[in-house]
Design a protein that fits this description.
The chain is an alpha/beta fold. The chain has helices at 38-46, 73-86, 99-110, 126-135, 137-142, 145-149, 154-170, 177-187, 192-201, 230-235, 255-258, 260-272; strands at residues 2-6, 9-16, 23-27, 50-54, 92-97, 115-121, 217-222, 244-249. β3 (23-27), α1 and β4 (50-54) form a beta-alpha-beta unit.
């Protein structure tokens, strides 16, 4: 792990592969951290790729400002670009899972000049997701948990009660036991869970009208994902004007953990172009 200074903050970043390898920036989701990309990053590194995996804003101890307003999605997207720039990469391939995918959709639209390709995992284009939330009862039910996560104090209390039973339940038994315990330990540290939940609390209505993506894009979705349904997934491509690949997987939500070979292969397909 190295420390990268960006925007006056200090981000912990895991680096894999040769320094002169093609840069791939991988953004984690919630409730995970950079650890979630380890298996994928190791596979990319073995193929000569430079994998850059930061603990994002709120997760890195040196990048944990107070206040919900510090965690807007546009701010998180700017972080990603500037972390890559601090490591000498003006252009890079971008990968995101869960919240990392949400941030990646914004990076790929607001900062498209820096993005060589996008591989989004689990969360579809944000306009497609908003459409699903608006008209699809199935997605509305799947997303009901977000209401709790946006409640300051209440969410922390519920998730960490009884030895973090509710937090552990979110992983559905799909993660390695050591990884699950590491995440629970991290989110049990003072301030960490609140900072990470501020991503939800800072969400604004502008995400509902995220522009179309103009860079080559792959979207990978697990058909058994409990949080993200079929409606939004199948409409994701409507919002990509460049080359688009939709990959349906026989799996759930935690695809970087459960399907590292498949994800590494899809990412390498974009890197090799």
């Amino acid at each position: 792990m190295t420390t990268v200074e960006a925007r006056g903050l200090a981000f912990d970043v895991d680096l894999y592969g040769p320094e002169d390898g093609t840069p791939v920036l991988l953004l984690h989701g919630w409730p995970q951290d950079a650890r979630s990309w380890r298996e994928v990053a190791e596979r990319l590194a073995a193929e000569g790729v430079r994998a850059i995996v930061p603990d994002q804003r709120g997760y890195s101890p040196g990048a944990r400002p107070e206040g919900v307003e510090s965690y807007g999605t546009a701010v998180l997207a700017q972080d990603a670009v500037e972390i890559a720039a601090a490591l000498g990469h003006d252009r890079f391939h971008l990968v995101g899972h869960d919240w990392g995918a949400a941030v990646s959709w914004v990076v790929a639209t607001a900062h498209a000049q820096h993005v060589l390709s996008l591989t989004a995992v689990s969360v579809p284009h944000l306009t497609a997701y908003n459409e699903a939330l608006t008209v699809d009862p199935d997605q509305q039910q799947r997303a009901a948990y977000i209401g709790l996560l946006r409640k300051p104090g209440k969410a922390e209390e519920v998730l960490l009660a009884d030895g973090a039973a509710r937090l552990r339940a979110m992983y559905g038994g799909d993660l390695d036991a050591a990884d699950e315990s590491a995440y629970v330990e991290r989110f049990s540290e003072p301030g960490v869970l609140t900072a990470s939940l501020n991503w939800y609390r800072a969400m604004g209505p502008e995400l509902a009208s995220t522009p179309d993506v103009t860079v080559p894009t792959t979207f990978v979705w697990g058909e058994n994902d409990l949080a993200l349904g079929r409606y939004g997934a199948e409409r994701c491509g409507d919002h990509v004007t460049a080359d688009y690949r939709f990959v349906k997987v026989d799996g759930g939500h935690w695809l970087p953990d459960t399907h590292p070979d498949l994800l590494a292969s899809e990412i390498l397909g974009r890197v090799r172009g």
